[in-house]
């Protein structure tokens, strides 16, 4: 008494019509792992020119300080005087020509768009300002 395992009526087994996917899946997994390990690590660094320690004594004369405020609507003030973009750029050019350069303190409002602040910083950099600092950053701390 024997059991016939074929689904057909004849004595010969029928060939399998499905493709064996296991070896293909194994190869794809190995390729994925190889691609992941060979990808370069994303580097989101911002290059900054940090001050170098020169061990020089502080200067005898304190530098003048210029405060630039950027209000929530993009209005800029130079030591409390409202200026437009061209006036700001001319004042920055004058400040860059001074020896020693004044310290520029930039204080943006908490609600101002980044575009307005970045424009002031770009103007300062293009005019040759080397002493630019952000002040009032404690307003951006989350409570």
From TrEMBL:
Subcellular location: Cell inner membrane; Cell membrane
Keyword Cell inner membrane listed: yes
Keywords: Cell inner membrane, Cell membrane, Membrane, Protein transport, Transmembrane, Transmembrane helix, Transport
One Pfam family recorded for the sequence: ExbD
Gene3D superfamilies per the UniProt record, alphabetical: 3.30.420.270
Membrane topology listed for this record: Single-pass type II membrane protein
The UniProt record lists the keyword Transmembrane: yes
Main location (coarse class): membrane
Alphabetized InterPro entries for the sequence: ExbD
PANTHER family on file: BIOPOLYMER TRANSPORT PROTEIN EXBD, EXBD MEMBRANE COMPONENT OF PMF-DRIVEN MACROMOLECULE IMPORT SYSTEM
Subunit structure: The accessory proteins ExbB and ExbD seem to form a complex with TonB.
Family: Belongs to the ExbD/TolR family.
Function: Involved in the TonB-dependent energy-dependent transport of various receptor-bound substrates.
The name this protein goes by in its record: Biopolymer transporter ExbD
Source taxonomy: Bacteria, Pseudomonadati, Pseudomonadota, Betaproteobacteria, Burkholderiales
């Amino acid at each position: 008494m024997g059991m016939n395992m074929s689904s057909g009526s004849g004595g010969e087994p029928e060939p399998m019509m499905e493709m064996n996917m296991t070896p293909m899946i194994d190869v794809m997994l190995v390729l994925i792992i190889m691609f992941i390990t060979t990808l370069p690590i994303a580097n989101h660094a911002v290059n900054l020119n940090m001050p170098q320690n020169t061990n020089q004594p502080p200067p005898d004369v304190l530098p003048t300080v210029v405060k630039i405020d950027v209000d929530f609507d993009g209005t800029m003030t130079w030591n409390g005087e409202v200026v437009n973009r061209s006036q700001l750029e001319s004042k920055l050019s004058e400040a860059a020509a001074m020896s020693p350069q004044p310290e520029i303190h930039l204080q943006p409002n908490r609600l101002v768009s980044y575009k307005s602040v970045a424009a002031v910083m770009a103007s300062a950099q293009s005019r040759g300002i080397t002493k630019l600092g952000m002040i009032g950053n404690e307003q951006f701390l989350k409570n």
